[in-house]
Write a structure and sequence with these properties.
The protein is of the alpha/beta class and about 525 residues long. It folds into three domains: about 40-160, Rossmann fold, CATH 3.40.50; about 195-415, ANL, N-terminal domain (Rossmann fold), CATH 3.40.50; about 415-525, GMP Synthetase, Chain A, domain 3. It is built from 15 helices and 27 strands. The structure holds 2-succinylbenzoate. It comes from Natronorubrum sulfidifaciens JCM 14089.
Length: about 525
């Protein structure tokens, strides 16, 4: 009956890597810059089988087993991710930069059966599991490297070993939970976002419609894989049968070298990284098809520099809750429609709504509400889902507007809005103004508590020539400049100067750190 339409299929819907391996076993799946090692899909698949086999030996006594991953960006992250999928587990990526108490809170919330670590995070993983011992069943600590401590077990078999028996892949349904990823959250408690297999496949598919796929593609992954921007290229490349080049972390000179050396065709960057590459004199090779620029808004100055340097830049707007991209602009749109993040990806809908949740007309700013197949079925904690979902979909908390063609512009986070003496101030507008002054290269604008006005506008300025660690700026002309361009209530009342804006791991400005900085070193003007 093979090949007859309608004939029963007698093998379960296997994990995504199995499908890929069956189709193109000999194509290159991964290249690791750190070791120079490469894996074909068949080799990766075999590795994943070995890891899956170890995961299967864990004592699991509840229905939806989860494993936490406390590892930096490296090939073993990919193996563990697909091994979890193969055994029907949900992966909980954890941020290696967080403290043990922050991590322990996340482990408590998600109750994984194991925490997978590497040499560099083994002691943190042990500390975290010890911390949750009293409140939950302590997770097993597994390491992908050589275990250094007695309580740790080895997860990945030594390279070259091929003795593990094959694992029976569990069936995979579109709505199965695959990942629980924490938002990087600059305000409030980090939210635990549930993403299904269907969300991730829909995202990778829609991404291909916007960026295109070339069989020779090599996607450089130098963003942390515990964030959506770092994990998404792995899913995309597995769907397309193309190659991921893994760099453990970003460095302007090293990343410029890797882009050249591996003839990279696409790379995901946050704006700060892109700016640093350009500062370091990097020039794109002819191979480079796209720079997917996301995680934070790109300034018009940066986009202008990209244009001047022939960088094929695709500014993108996305979030963990939508498994990465919501809307992405092409280089042509970036040139013709300044500041746009483009149209939503295929099957994704964005509605701009007012404070009452009613849609506004084109050109009017409001909150962006998103719906479609990439949108999370909900946060881990149901109450958070209830307060975020409305008639038109998931409320992003971002303010923006759309033109008649559905092209989007993102202005700022709704919660970033400053309310001073009853007036709303859009931080983006103040940033644009101060950055237009030649002495200012970049700025962050936040609300500071004010006894009289509720909040007052605070601005942290990065001087145009302060790159080498001695940030200084003549404030007088900048303030004068603002006086003629901004209403009194919008003008910065507390001003500070720094070498660089404090940022979270995903590239967004860390607004709480900006506030601290202004409280400690700001001048009231
Ligand atoms: O802001 C977020 O949380 C998602 C950001 C994100 O996914 C991303 C960040 C940088 C570069 C590319 C991407 C992407 O959409 O793939």
């Amino acid at each position: 009956m093979d090949g007859v339409i309608g004939a029963p299929v007698d093998w379960p819907t296997r994990d995504l890597l199995s499908h890929r391996t069956a189709a193109t076993p000999q194509r290159t799946a991964l290249i690791d810059d750190e070791t120079g090692a490469t894996w074909t899909f068949a080799e990766l698949d075999q590795r994943v089988d070995q890891v899956a086999h170890v995961l299967e030996t864990l004592e699991i006594d509840h229905g939806q087993p989860r494993i936490a991953v406390l590892m930096d960006t490296r090939p073993a992250f990919v193996s563990v991710f697909f091994a979890a999928m193969r055994t029907g587990m949900t992966v909980v990526p954890l941020n290696v930069r967080e403290t043990a108490s922050e991590l322990a809170a996340k482990v408590e919330r998600t109750a994984p059966v194991a925490v997978v670590c590497e040499e560099a995070t083994e002691s943190a993983a042990l500390e975290v599991t010890a911390a949750v011992e009293s409140t939950a069943t302590a997770p097993t600590v597994l390491t992908v490297d050589e275990p250094a401590r007695e309580r740790t077990r080895r997860l990945c078999p030594a390279a070259g070993s091929d003795t593990a028996p094959s694992v029976d892949p569990v069936s995979l349904e579109r709505d199965d939970p695959l990942v629980i990823m924490f938002t990087s959250g600059t305000a409030g408690e980090p939210k635990a976002v549930r993403l299904t297999v269907g969300n991730l496949v829909a995202s990778a598919t829609a991404s291909a419609f916007r960026l295109g796929v070339d069989p020779g593609d090599r996607w450089l992954c130098c963003l942390p894989m515990y964030h959506m921007g770092g994990l998404a290229p792995v899913l995309r490349s597995t769907l397309y049968g193309t190659t991921v080049v893994i760099q453990r972390s970003f460095d302007r000179h090293e990343t410029a070298r890797v882009l050249d050396e591996y003839e990279i065709t696409g790379v995901s960057l946050v704006p700060t990284m892109c700016k640093r590459l350009l500062d370091a004199g990097w020039e794109p090779t002819a191979d480079l098809r796209f720079v997917l620029l996301g995680g934070a808004p790109a300034s018009s100055e940066l986009l202008e520099r990209c244009r001047a340097a022939d960088v094929p830049v695709y500014p993108t707007y996305g979030m963990t809750e939508t498994a990465s991209q919501i809307a992405t602009a092409t280089p042509a749109e970036t040139a013709s429609h300044e500041g746009t993040v483009g149209q939503p990806l295929v099957f994704t809908d964005v509605t701009v709504v007012d404070d009452d949740g009613e849609p506004v007309s084109a050109g009017e700013p409001g909150e962006l509400v998103v719906s479609g197949p990439t949108v999370t079925p909900g946060y881990l904690e149901a109450a958070q889902t209830d307060s975020a979902v409305g008639e038109y979909g998931l409320h992003t908390g971002d303010v923006g507007y759309a033109d008649e063609n559905g092209r989007l512009w993102v202005l700022n986070r709704r919660s970033d809005r400053i309310v001073t003496g009853g007036e709303n101030v859009d931080p983006g507008e103040v940033i644009e103004t101060v950055c237009a002054h030649p002495a200012v290269e970049d700025a962050a604008v936040v609300g500071l508590t004010d006894p009289e006005w509720g909040e007052r506008v605070g601005a942290l300025l990065i001087p145009a020539d302060g790159r080498d660690g001695d940030a200084e700026i003549d404030l007088e002309p900048v303030l004068e400049y603002c006086e003629t361009r901004l209403a009194g209530f919008k003008r910065p009342k507390t001003v500070g100067v720094a070498d660089a804006l404090p940022r979270t791991a995903s590239g967004t400005v860390d607004r709480e750190a900006v506030r601290d900085r202004l409280r400690e070193t700001g001048t009231d003007v």
